[in-house]
Fold these 2 entries.
Entry 1:
Amino acid sequence: MAQMTMIQAITDALRVELKNDENVLVYGEDVGQNGGVFRATEGLQDEFGEDRVFDTPLAESGIAGISIGLATQGFRPVPEIQFFGFVYEAMDAINGQMARLRYRSGNTVSMPVTIRSPFGGGVHTPELHADSLEGLITQQPGMKVVIPSGPYDAKGLLIQSIRDNDPVVFLEHMKLYRSFREEVPEDDYTIDLGKANVVREGNDVTLVAYGAMVHSALKAAEDLEKDGIDAEVIDLRTVMPVDFDTIIESVEKTNRMVMVQEAQRQAGIASYVVSNVQERAILHLEAPILTVAAPDTVYAFTQAEEVWLPNYNDIIEKVNKVINF
Amino acid sequence: MKRSLENIEEQFETFQILNEEGKIVNEDAMPELSDEDLKEIMYRMVYTRILDQRSIALNRQGRLGFYAPTAGQEASQLGTQFALEKEDFILPGYRDVPQLIWHGLPLYQAFLFSRGHYHGNQMPEGVNAFSPQIIIGAQYTQAAGVALGMKKRDKKAVAITYTGDGGTSQGDFYEGINFAGAYQAPAIFVVQNNQFAISVPVEQQTAAKTLAQKAVAAGIEGIQVDGMDILAVYAATKDARERAVNGEGPTLIETLTYRYGPHTMAGDDPTRYRTEDMDSEWEKKDPIVRFRKFLEEKGLWTEEEENEVIEKAKEEIKAAIKKTDEQPKQKVSDLISNMYEELPAHLQEQMEEYKAKESK
């Protein structure tokens, strides 16, 4: 076991899979000698050669498009979109093409592509770097979307994503890259996609979160405990498909729920999760499900970012509302 | 100061071997083709013209779905495909069903594709191709990826993809040829310039005098070919393929051609944007007419032979459409089971819901 940051755990996962499977290819803008703008691919080109870890021309649609072609030749592509705000350039190649190839080949062609990309607020980026755009992908049938909340999960989920035979968008919150370390096994291990993780058990209210918001939810839960409110925190890990069984089981116990996401209220997956939970568990609910989310504006890059981003105080406020309903 | 566009048309002058009168005008470039090959080429062109006529009729009877007519483009479509080997991978546009058929897709499956049935998209074992692309140009970046993969696997094969004149305006067109150039990947990019993107003429599509010259910016070979001359199309593709598998990189081939029919059978009316004069000018260039003259001159083709092909095509099409009708209709549950390798829980629930509806 080693203490790793999330970025180290991601590099480690890539190394494990490059070693395990000669069909794995890692590529994108600046991922070669430069090791990626966040150093996620640091040292991998030297270790595995330019044939398997390589730079691409600067064009996101091309990066996603060649992944489709490479998959037809038996490769398992792991491309990087340098910042997820750039994904608009590749939307047809991902949602219009990659996601549909299993259908479009009558289930004869798989697209085992894992698109890695940094996203997420709080690190003072320029425009279209920090936006939470997971909802664009979760709305496309055929895609899976994974968002880890820390180093241990990142490694296990990334290895599992690369081994998955369907296309996965793997989103890495920039604020989590180096903010803390965790014990991470050095050999390979996997975490199932589509399975949520109960990161804190509690009886009074269920907080459902993913990515960096898991930590805000945990912090809120600690404060709430002082007021005698015992919150359960669920880390979704995978936001498509969503593990409703784990959420429903929790809500049946706590009878109250707050959905937490960094994305705007109209974006992300909150609406999808909440509508499903109320359909399945309305008779267990003592209060409406409330949502903590960012306001429905463009991302507040640099200016007003700290207020714009949902935080643990927003969560506490909503929890108090559902408790006192 | 040298201006870059000064001699651009000379640099991309149209490559022709067989002229409108069926005469060889470029003996040096004549590809090596046996008499048998020449007859096979004629057979395929006549067959494909009949297939187009029957497909239009079947569409009008409501027995086919989406259909993009092919008449006029046979030399561009079949000449490129005839230069391929079985291991080459085709990424077609929506009008490029004939190439798939001659690469090995059974006719009844092509009809199922037209009807939107997933079985039409299931390439038989050994048929290296995607089903036809709907989004203009999306296949260009994918072709670069297929070719890069072939290079990494040390395959002696190429990826070939098709779009039209309008497709060369798309970002994916540039990204595709640029990626393939940067990686020196064995790809052939075919632009069938049939003069109109639905209704917009090529002169309004771009200031470029030729579409082949777009290759220059990507640093790859480009050639403009008489797309009504199947010998020229074949020779250009064969040359591109040879260079590609020898590691000399990708090629952009522009074929000058014309679709006689509408854009698709979904209500397009070409009289709104083309004149009869223009239609008849292009009909004079017809690929089958000139090739017939050429073969007759060589004593390789007779009216009886042609009639035999026509009858054979009609019979096979009739049998294929019968087989198409026999295929079980596509169900929502088929769609659901084609979304993921393993059904996630939410789709399992929806599967049960639709299976119940379907069993009623």
Note: Chain A has twelve helices and 14 strands.
Entry 2:
Amino acid sequence: MLRFAAARARQTAIVAFVVTSLAFVLVHAAPGDPFATSLDENSNFAAARAEMRLRYALDLPLWQQYPMMLANFARGEFGTSFGEARPVSAVLTDVIPDTLLLMVPALLIGVLAGVAVGTWQGAHAGTWRDRATGAFALSVLSIPEFLLALIASLVFAVRLRWFPGTGIFSAGAVHASWLDTVGDYLHHAALPVSVLALVIGCVVARFQRAAVVDTLNEEFVRTARAKGAATRRVLVHHVLRRTGGSLFAVLGLLVPTLVGGAAMVEMVFGWPGAGATLVSAVGSRDYPLVIALVLVGSIAVCVGSAIADAAAVLANPAIRKEA
Amino acid sequence: MSASRRTGNVPAFVPAFVPACVLALFVLTALTAQWIAPFDPAVSGDLVADRLLAPSTTHWFGTDASARDVFSRMLFGTQVSLGIAALSVAVVLLVGVTWGVIAGLAPAWLDGWMMRFVDALMATPRLLVVLACVAFTGRLSATSLALLLGLTAWPAMSRIVRARVRELDATDYVAAARALGAPRMGIAVRHILPGVLPAAMVTAILTVASVIPLEAGLSYFGAGIAPPTASWGVLLQDASARPLDAWWLLLFPSAAIAATVMSVNLLGERLRGRDRSLLAP
């Protein structure tokens, strides 16, 4: 387990290094300037710009800037967000919890529902109910996340007005008690979490179904049946234990895609999380914020995949050799 | 009826020619857009009389807020979206197959480093990388977006190709070719590459199913290709301003994206058969 952790930590470090270097190269290779849009041509443009470039060390030679940036990152200093005029770390502590408030419930609901539906499908493989469910899952997965989110928002928030269409809490609301706060969050979270959970659930159900169909053909399942174990017991005690490992492995591979999908859902629902912030930072060329968010996102993905792979090994020690 | 047919997934019950025909129709549309478009997609009609018309016999898919014919814009949008998909898949094939074949035949230390690099790329969320690139280069042309999408999508391909190369490298006919003194380059090109191509083609098809939604999403959020070039995603962005009163702006691009991705998925899974090693990228 220690060797596994060391290998993954090394891989995470490589990813972080590659991503930061790439971002650094892009920042300095690209034309344009983060201060260009906020300065009016009529004002003392050149002087003000020169001063800003000096203050944020954009004039130093690249071979000095690069190690400086890496050293700052290593200390956890991401500089000042040009757009929000406050430390990037303060922005990060604001947006990351909001993203977790979206992703964690969606992941829990999606995986649980996906496993349940996929197992049920696998146990009834070939029936019309299995096929109808499979066709539904394939249809959902053929629609991009942002489009699903857009349709859900149009139908349930704009037209039917059952749920609010943007934000995580009602604007300017003062909550009387923590219960009110939770209720407000649930009301806002229902749509984005459902969309994301639906997508995750469909992906998981498809893998789970295939894994259950494969496992049901194995000898140990026949043995369990021969002993007289009931179908439910065979599924829960024998089949699910076998499929758990591959499910976690699949989840590990899917983490990067899920992060992308969550970002798109955030944008459609105006969820004040990391994904929506990243897109607006991209629009305003807020370099320090973009680099920090991409870096944090990549590290989170690596850690997520590592956790999923570790869970896969724990669930099925037979695949340990690949770690 | 065989066991695989009974327990097969949905694709096994849809004849393969259905998704193939849908895709062929889209490709044909893209190739002939210039000749079948009834209107110029970039030219506005009467800005007062022809604005936001519902679908009719003149404007099959209605008109948009700039009084442009949506059907014509869809035809050219198909060209752009499928063109981007084709170009990025070509990049994926070129880079992924080359990288995979070299890694598969390289000495162990080089193979280890090449695959570690692939692992690192696969662990990097593509959307973040593409967004970061857009942040620093400004809006992209369709060609550069396609190249960017291709350059972020090849690692899955190279991993599959490498695995297949290792299998083939252990076969008797490759050993025989080596015993006959065939040069290493010749073995790679004449004996291993042909065996790799089927798996590579299936992966390429499944790659389309990830490129099209990504392009549409980026363009929808204004981080994709720059107007006036219209892809399906750009058309959706046009629709987002008035989604409820002008439903035709939203419906047709959405349906095109969903139909294409679904056909690609069905076809890819059908070709992939029950080979689990060809995990969708």
Note: The mean pLDDT of chain A is 79.
